[in-house]
Amino acid sequence: MAINRRDFLKASSGGALLLASGATVAEAEAKELSPDAVGILYDATLCIGCKSCMVNCKRVNTLEKGGALYKPGRDIPYNYKGDFPIWDEVTELSDTALSIIKAYKEGTGLNRNEVENGFSFVKNHCMHCIDPACASVCPVEALYKEPASGAVIYYRDRCIGCRYCQIACPFGIPKFEWGSNDPLIVKCQLCHHRFPEGGYSACCEFCPSGASIFGPVKELREEAKRRLSLTYGKYYDFPVQTVGSERKLAKQASRYIDRIYGMTEAGGTQYLLLAGVPFDMLGFNPQISDQEYPELTWDYIQKVPALIVGLLLAGAASYYATRNRDGEDKEK
Amino acid sequence: MNSAQENRFWTPNTILLLFAILVGGGVALYRLFYGLGAATNLNDTYPWGLWLAFDVLGGVAMAAGGFIIAAAIYLFNWRKYRPIGRPAILTAFLGYLMAVIALFLDIGHPFRLWHPIAMWQIHSIMWVVAIHVVLYTTTLAIESSPMLFERFNKTRALTALSKIMVGVVAFGVMLSTLHQSSLGAVFLIAPARMSPLWFSEFLPYMFLISAIAMGLAMVGTEAMLSERFFGHRVDIEIYRGLARGMLITLAILLVAKIFFLIRSGVGSAFNGSLPGNMYLLEIALGIILPLLLLTNRRFRTEPRAILGVNILVITGVLLNRLNVCLFAMQGYSTAQGAGYFPSLMEFLLTLGIIAFGIFLYKMAALYLPLFAKPIEPSGR
Question: What is the predicted ipTM?
């Protein structure tokens, strides 16, 4: 009998049932991609490094209505302000930056998308895993995967600030607001607060080159596969902003690394990447496997109900077996 | 020690303890008002630091003596350990209390510490751990309560308690076994950032075994210190039994460690890296050296020699917790360009919490029947 984790939760919320079901729990099923799942495809070979995505990401997410960076009284500049142009110039993802464009550069750095004497951009933000480690470890379900869209979102009022999500995330995405006494975990939430009004991820909305496109994950996967099959140097149409967009740019196809990052990594993610430079050179931890990380802890938790029963029985058995032992006992 | 000295509250040691508690309390207040970033050197790559690795993981491991001795006395009916039952259980209670204080200050929203009780998330080891802490701390309070009842002559409560004691102990032993291993399971999620020297799917069981070794060492050490400071005599056979227990546990631990070292590649321990060196230090100091000593008969029979072994084992397991929580992640974190060394305030609070534990123990030793033998289970 196969019981997935959510059914297990339902079946075992009663104490007696929790004990009874322990023995019958089989391997948890692999998490499936929701049919309505949405995500982002980032093509490093198209990125021009303008950081428009970062600006719009901050603009949209510092707004009061559901923005992941919004907090009363907190001001995160995303645009030139006043007489002195001030940006908060981040170099890493942080509690003020949900997304970031980074650059790879080697040697002279003249050749686009080349490893030697080349350069490439890369965009980092939450990967929105199909089976997110952060949500699985959160003791209070403050991090939560929306069943339909698949966006991994954050309920700030539940969070106790234990930072287990930071330990668990293989991509190092969740950031903690260390400077605050009312700290939040800060991470990209796929701009899910804009979905109800038909909006989509801010980074894709402002991307002028078609490097970041938003859309259903299934279509994004198809688009990524199409790009890997293109002939180097020939001209093709690339959609801008969304995968199904009317607006298309005709561009020369670049040489791709034959890998869609996010197809299988950590069990699959809803943020997919293509690049001309190997991904570990772009800063992705090569130790990340295709393992669905929550399974690692679930394998253990599954055994807990049986262990509870077993240990109680063993304790009782031992007590009754040894209760008539006499006097001083020298044997240990 | 004569009895006049033994009952004094104001001693230089007490003053020292109170001073450390006061300083730690100041740090705690500072952290509550200004936040974690202000009080600690933690960062996004090292989200868990000294407070979690030492105070919480170490504190809980130190508390393992409680469930081992409780099981020995109440479940295995090894009556010779009865004289150390109360101190062992009290130490466990204080260990958990210290861990809870550290957790309270370590989480970003201390006053939401109760959230896991109300907001269930059964997939989370952290939730499992949180529920264990709540239940087991309560259980330990019940297990320690006979001292209070005896002190204030509440015979009715004592009789009632003696009826359920075996059940309470069985429940506590179950919780504690699971809790020790679940703390190891917390790290099962992080193979991508941990060194294979420590990471394996058997982490929960490694935590359990090492906690047992530490528990035995703690109980023995504590009994010896009580002899020294409170003039309380302990039967030498107890120390010998504990030493034999340690020998067995350490041998199992060493075999497991060697197995996982070979599996992960022996080279990673000897490449001169910081995690490699820490691993060697942990194994040499905390497992191999005490094992070698214990194979010598003198170290199994003479209290003073056993004390030396105990201190080695305690150090080794504390090192292990620091290693799993901090040094195992050093390779990953360095690649991320991050470092961590605890701030002065992190050290001071840790000292304060330890002092608080010792102070409470001392108060119990002075004013409660700590060294009387535990109550008889009823029906006997």
Answer: 0.89
Instruction: Determine the structural domain holding residue A134 and report its residue range.
Output: 38-273
Are A25 and A46 in a shared domain?
no
Q: What distance in Å separates residue A305's CA from the closest CA in chain B?
A: 10
Hey, is the C-beta of A132 within 8 angstroms of any chain B C-beta? no
pLDDT > 70 in chain B, percent: 96
Contacts 24+ apart (CB under 8 A), B112-116: B112/A140, B112/A159, B112/A160, B112/A161, B113/A160, B115/A139, B115/A140, B115/A158, B115/A160, B116/A139, B116/A140, B116/A160
CB contact under 8 Å between B37 and A159, yes or no, is no
DSSP string of A236-290, one letter each residue? EEEE-EETT-S-EEEEE--PPPS--BTSSGGG-BSEEEE-SS-TTTTT--TT--S
Please tell me the total count of domains within chain A. Answer: 2
- CB contacts of A297 in chain B (<8 Å) are 123-125, 185, 188-189
**Nearest CB partner across the interface for B188, out of A94, A300, A325:** A300
Residue type, B218: M
Q: For residue A277, list its beta bridge partners.
A: none
- Distance linking the first and last C-alpha atoms of chain B: 36
**Would A112 be classed as within a structural domain?**
yes
* Whether A142 contacts A156, CB under 8 Å: yes
Mutation site, A300, A322, A325, interface B, largest B CB count within 10 A:
A300
Q: Give domain status of residue A287, yes or no.
A: no
The first and second tokens of residue A18, run together, are 């929790």
Per-residue pLDDT tens over the stretch A100-152: 999 999 999 898 999 999 999 999 999 999 999 999 999 999 999 999 999 99
pLDDT at A84: 62
Q: What residues of chain A lie within 8 A of the CB of B380, using their CB?
A: 323
Taking one residue from A and the other from B, the number of pairs with CB-CB distance under 8 angstroms is: 203
Residue of B34, B42, B191 whose CA lies nearest to A170? B191
With respect to residue A304, please indicate whether it lies within any of the assigned structural domains: yes
Nearest to B105 by CA among B44, B30, B190: B30
Domain housing B343: 3-367
pLDDT value at residue B236:
87
Identity of the residue in A12, A160, A319 whose CB atom sits nearest the CB atom of B75: A319
Question: Chain B 193-222, CB below 8 Å of chain A: which residues?
Answer: 193, 201, 204
Mean pLDDT across chain B? 89
The verdict on residue A288 lying in a domain is no
Cα-only R_g, chain A: 24
In this complex, the residue of A136, A181, A328 whose CB is nearest that of residue B34 is: A181
Q: Which residue of A140, A269, A299 is the best one to mutate when testing the B interface, meaning the one whose CB has the most B CBs within 10 A?
A: A140
pTM of the model: 0.88
DSSP-derived 3-state class of residue B176: helix
In chain B, residues with a C-beta closer than 8 Å to the C-beta of A332 are 78, 241, 244-245
Q: Answer yes or no: do A187 and A93 share one domain.
A: yes
Strands A248-252 and A235-239: antiparallel
Three-state DSSP string of B93-131 = HHHHHHHHHHHHHHCCCHHHCCHHHHCCCCCCHHHHHHH
